[in-house]
Specification:
By secondary structure, the chain is of the alpha/beta class. It contains 21 helices and 15 strands. The chain has helices spanning 37-40, 42-67, 70-75, 81-117, 144-150, 186-189, 206-209, 279-311, 327-339, 343-349, 357-366, 391-409, 428-432, 471-481, 484-490, 493-507, 523-527, 532-539, 556-565, 580-585, 592-596; strands at residues 9-15, 138-143, 172-177, 215-221, 244-246, 260-262, 316-322, 350-354, 369-371, 413-417, 421-423, 443-447, 460-467, 512-514, 547-549. The strands form 4 sheets. The protein has a 7-stranded mixed beta sheet with strand order 9-8-7-10-13-12-14. A 4-stranded mixed beta sheet has the order 2-3-1-4. Helix 15 crosses helix 16 (493-507). The chain is elongated, with a radius of gyration of 36 Å. The two termini are 55 Å apart.
Length: 631
């Protein structure tokens, strides 16, 4: 590529449904200074001075006339009152002409500046004044679908929108040209004020509109559901972060108070989603890091041969973390993969990090690779999390950071996934295909579906993601490892990782991609009414995605019921709720796979207002208030 010309700069503003606003503004500009305030009032000041001076001398003259001696009066020229008044008026008129001349000169100066501000380019007046010509010399509109396809930064569209669908009110991208050289063509790239009563901004293709942009900074923003939001683009020393201002009194938005600078995590309801962790969390993380470094050398020695065995020719290791409380979901992933023809891939590529001895026994019984270190995982809970964000959940989140970081550190690609999902198709070829446009990205995530501030701008679901091994991803996970206090205070590594993704994409050029929801659906699609038709296509086999991840579900009990009525459950009842641990220890000669796995889906119907196979038509009860039948 030719060396970028810093004078050819463009700023692209994309209206998206992302609560996080990412600003990378255009070229810096030093604006001209305003005229001093006293200069604007100079004519009035001069007039006042002249009137005062004339009055003073007139008074002195009259006083002298009245006080001279009679003999002197007889020798002086006698001035009548009318003559004195005439002289004063004559002098006032003379001074008034001088003041008017000064005022005309000032007016002419302003008119010259205004004309210069609207200096014509090729016979046309500018749309934007010269004072912002280094930010907005011209402008164009581009279809957002066209722009995102041409310049894919990995950020998702609204989860309910497919790639080809429109997004009313945000269908176009506003492109601002920072100089004449960056325009694709003067006649089309700039809109002139004399092109008509209401000249439109030209609508161009992404390729043509940006053909002379040597540098392009892209801003993703949203109005947050109609919020009274403004956006200021300031020509200045360049920043790759935003400065957020809010009329905020500490608890809520109040328009009667001035704007105050706030962190990006402050919501209009007063909650701060990125509050700094306290010292207590820092001390907890310090203890976790001590255990990590104390055991690192021995851990690496054990893990290296296991990881090398899993990686194989494609250098990829599938990583899962599990405790006994979640073991039935782990078993179901294995059984479903075997029933659907992926059993050999899972046996070879999967490396389970067991956080307790129960899962260690289960993994051995299934014949898959497993790592367990009681000193590292001695404080990890054996029971499943009762709800999102509880203590068991948070501790497991930290374990998921360490495991991915270790395998990534060794030089392998990592496919990390939670245990609550089922493959419809083997996803590894998708990530290994060099002809796939997604192959250019360093890390790829399932779309979580949430568009809240704390997950912006990628809405990355940390229950399914692929990490390519390189210096950028290694730096990312080293950084995340040291942010344990943030993970503990926010009860999830998803939020901490979301913040790092945005920072590292800007700082090191880390390429982050949010995967298509239609190919990698999750709990958002399963639970949202607007996705009913999409889920029916999956249930009937009309559409076959790579997987279904049962995220967005309150607890494990419901995950099992939803998977069962979707025809995605392959685990016998005796292996649920930790029952497989005792079966794995049984030395009767029958493998755990034979004891736990079914070759056919074990379908049972529970909730008629949730997606299910057609076999559950009309069966079950409602789980949601005012829930409507799925079929």
């Amino acid at each position: 590529h030719p060396k970028p010309n810093p004078k050819c700069r463009c700023t692209s503003i994309v209206l998206e449904s992302y609560t996080m606003v990412s600003i990378r503004n255009g070229s810096s500009y030093r604006g001209g200074s305003r005229s001093p305030l006293w200069l604007a009032y100079l004519p009035q000041i001069v007039m006042l001075f002249l009137v005062a001076t004339t009055s003073f001398y007139s008074g002195v003259l009259l006083g002298m006339k009245m006080n001279v001696a009679p003999s002197e009066q007889s020798r002086s020229t006698t001035l009548s009152v009318d003559e004195v008044e005439a002289e004063v008026l004559r002098r006032l008129k003379l001074q008034q002409k001088e003041v008017t001349s000064i005022a005309v000169d000032n007016s002419n100066e302003k008119e010259i500046k205004n004309k210069d501000n609207k200096k014509k380019d090729d016979g046309h007046d500018r749309r934007f004044p010269k004072t912002i010509s280094k930010i907005a010399y011209g402008s164009a509109l581009i279809s957002k679908n066209d722009f995102i396809q041409q310049f894919d930064y990995g950020i998702p569209k609204p989860p309910s929108k497919r790639e080809h669908e429109t997004d009313p009110g945000k269908d176009d991208v506003l492109l601002l040209y920072g100089s004449k050289k960056s325009l694709p063509d003067v006649s089309t790239g700039i809109v002139h004020t004399n092109d008509g009563p209401t000249p439109d901004i030209p609508h161009l293709t992404a390729t043509y509109a940006t053909k002379n942009c040597a540098v392009m900074n892209v801003i993703y923003t949203d109005t947050h559901g109609g919020e009274d939001q403004c956006m200021a683009i300031v020509g200045n020393y360049e920043s790759y972060h935003i400065q957020r201002w809010l009329r905020f009194d500490g608890t809520t938005v109040d328009k009667s108070i001035p704007l105050h600078a706030v962190g990006r995590g402050v919501q209009s309801n007063g909650q701060d989603k990125f509050e700094a962790p306290s010292d207590s969390y820092a001390l907890q993380n310090q203890a976790l890091l001590k255990t990590y470094f104390d055991r690192l050398e021995e851990t690496m020695a054990i893990l290296k041969p296991m990881a090398a065995s899993c990686a194989g020719d494609d250098n990829t290791v599938i990583v899962m973390v599990c405790n006994t409380g979640q073991s039935d979901l782990l078993i179901n992933f294995f059984c479903s993969a075997d029933a659907r023809g992926f059993g050999d891939v899972v046996r070879k590529k999967l490396l389970i990090f067991a956080t307790d001895e129960g899962v260690l026994e289960i993994a051995k019984g299934l014949g898959v690779n497993v790592f367990y270190d009681e000193k590292i995982f001695e404080k990890m809970p054996e029971e499943e999390a009762k709800r999102y964000g509880d203590r068991a959940f948070t501790q497991m989140m930290y374990a998921k950071i360490v495991t991915v970081q270790l395998i990534n550190r060794m030089g392998y690609d990592v496919l990390f996934q939670d245990v609550d999902l089922v493959w419809y198709k083997n996803p590894l070829p998708f990530f290994h295909d060099k002809e796939n446009p997604s192959h250019n990205f360093d890390i790829l995530f399932q779309d979580d579906g949430a568009r809240s501030l704390r997950y912006a701008p990628y809405s990355a679901n940390t229950g399914f993601y692929y990490v390519r091994n390189n210096d950028k991803t290694k730096f990312l996970f080293r950084s995340l490892l040291f942010l344990g206090d943030m993970v503990l205070s926010m009860t999830s590594h998803q939020q901490a990782l979301a913040a790092l993704l945005d920072e590292h994409s800007s700082l090191t050029g880390l390429r982050v991609k949010t995967l298509s929801g239609s190919e990698f659906p999750g709990g958002y699609h399963y639970h949202r009414k607007k996705e009913i038709d999409f889920m029916k296509d999956i249930a009937t086999g009309k559409h076959i995605p790579y997987l279904l991840h049962m995220s967005w579900t309150t607890n494990k009990a419901n995950k099992l019921l939803f998977l069962k009525q979707m025809g995605l459950w392959y685990t016998s009842e005796g292996c649920e709720s930790g029952g497989a641990v005792d079966l794995a220890k049984d030395s009767s000669g029958t493998s755990l796979q034979q004891k736990c796995c079914s070759a056919e889906a074990l379908i049972s119907c529970h909730y008629r207002d949730k997606p299910s196979t057609h076999a559950c038509h009309g069966q079950g009860k409602n789980i949601d208030v005012k829930g409507q039948p799925f079929w």
